[in-house]
């Protein structure tokens, strides 16, 4: 990845800021939250129902982290009672095709990965 002969070598760096951003966007819950919000804006409880295995504390932390990084927007709705909705932000929307590709890759390759894990585990 750090091939300096490549004309775009500077674009392919994985230094500390890059790693931090990738860690925050590709973590356990962020991919699922981003995938859901790419489809449509959702309120907190709608997100919890869409991703039932995520806890309230983890979802809150994930939403704050994604908002801080500009991936999603938190919008206060003027309703009674006041409600909050989360929407994909323009920079977050640029991840839509990448997220779909990662999820598709995972689905297609999981059987191979599981076989490799079984082989490895049986040899060790």
UniProtKB/TrEMBL annotation:
Which InterPro entries does the record cross-reference, listed alphabetically? HTH_HxlR, WH-like_DNA-bd_sf, WH_DNA-bd_sf
UniProt protein name: Transcriptional regulator
- Any Pfam family hit: HxlR
Superkingdom of this entry's organism?
Answer: Bacteria
Q: Which UniProt keywords apply?
A: DNA-binding, Transcription, Transcription regulation
Q: Which GO terms describe its molecular function?
A: DNA binding
Residue span(s) of domain HTH hxlR-type: 16-114
Q: Which organism is it from?
A: Conyzicola nivalis
């Amino acid at each position: 990845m750090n091939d300096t002969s490549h004309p775009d070598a500077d674009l392919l760096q994985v230094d500390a800021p890059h790693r931090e951003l990738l860690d925050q966007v590709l973590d356990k819950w962020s991919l699922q939250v981003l995938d859901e919000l790419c489809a449509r804006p959702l309120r907190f409880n709608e997100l919890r129902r869409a991703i039932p295995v995520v806890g309230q504390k983890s979802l809150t932390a994930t939403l704050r982290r994604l908002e801080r990084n500009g991936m999603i927007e938190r919008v206060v709705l003027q309703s009674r009672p006041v409600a909050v909705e989360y929407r994909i932000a323009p920079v977050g929307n640029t991840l839509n095709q990448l997220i779909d590709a990662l999820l598709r890759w995972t689905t297609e390759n999981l059987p191979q990965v599981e076989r490799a894990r079984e082989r490895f585990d049986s040899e060790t």
